[in-house]
Amino acid sequence: MAFTMGFNFLLLLAMAATNLLSLYHLSSTFQSPKPSPPVPIHIPQHLLRHLNDIRATINHLTASTSDSKRTSPVPHDLVLHSQVAPIASSCHRHPYLLRRYMNYTPFSTCPYDLDLQETLILNGCHPLPRRRCFSKTPPKPTSSLPLNPFPTALPDSYVIWTKYSCKSFACLLQNNPIDFDLNARRSSLLKYASELDLPVNRFMQLAKSANSVIRLGIDIGGGTGTFAALMKIFYNVTMLTTTLNVNAPYSEAVAARGLVPLHVPLQQRLPVFDGTMDLVRCGRAVNRWIPLPVMEFMFYDVDRVLRGGGYLWLDRFFCKAMDLEEVYEPMIGKLGYKKVKWAVANKTDPSGLKNGEVYLTAVLQKPVSR
Ligand SMILES: *[C@@H]1O[C@H](CO)[C@@H](O)[C@H](O)[C@H]1NC(C)=O
Ligand SMILES: *[C@@H]1O[C@H](CO)[C@@H](O)[C@H](O)[C@H]1NC(C)=O
Fold first, then answer.
1. CATH number, domain 191-221+266-365, options 1.10.1740, 1.10.287, 3.40.50, 3.90.550
2. Signal sequence span per UniProt (predicted)?
């Protein structure tokens, strides 16, 4: 109980810290006409002091969870959580980036700094501090938006291309066909060539034969949203797609298809309420490169949002063969889900062979009641 209180307070503090930064900004007389050049950056002493105060207070609070009044020691998980949790406290580890991000003229157009935002988010500084400026929109209006989630082409005018090396979807189709060739992606999600494949219609049959209705779900790391698109056109299922704009406008691509992109990193708590989703699918973004504590928290958050009887679908999760037995299977086992499908096979590409990796495709059903 005391831990819960402590951590609620910590969250509050993190929010307060965010506001402090905004306050700092408003009270500052410094107005920058243009985004400042990346180097060299001079951090004003008072901002550093603010950041140090925030850091010291957070450290103090984190430390104070082990005060002597309590009889039991602080659970290891909680301490861990304070380091990996998305409570904006990670922002204080990147004062240079944060200062660049918060350097803008209030009530005018925000600097176009998507790359900076993405870097902060990937470093765990999410949610980002709020800003009192207006986000930039593309220069030309989009003449028409596709109603079909598999349009022949995505509208280029929907995207501000300045930060990307490609300047059109046609270019992305050439350079990144895995994500941007919508039809190739579609076929790969529908095919059954090995045990590792689970075509969408087979999954829906599995659910139907268990009398389980699928209407709502989240596709974690869903790229350009092709899984959500298939679920929509074939089954009227509403899927949210989490995606980041790493080197390409993934969020815009998903939205241009009439689907909902969630701009959240893997360490972020899913922004939906407990027990509301019928399905959570983890695509190839969820793999062994995710730090174990983050992965474990992610699974528990997936469990939180799934309804009783809902499904967790791991699509070609990969890891070292030994780790699957010793680490991941026990971690997944702790959820207490029913194994509806569990298929493991060697990963036979060069890096898979070199590292002795295996793929796992699994469908797991959450217990109906706990
Ligand atoms: C999806 O919903 C629409 C409108 O309610 C309906 O006409 C259509 O038959 C549904 N499609 C499927 C595959 O259920
Ligand atoms: C998978 O790889 C392991 C070790 O690299 C090997 O011993 C095993 O025979 C392979 N299994 C298949 C089905 O190829």
1. 3.40.50
2. 1-16
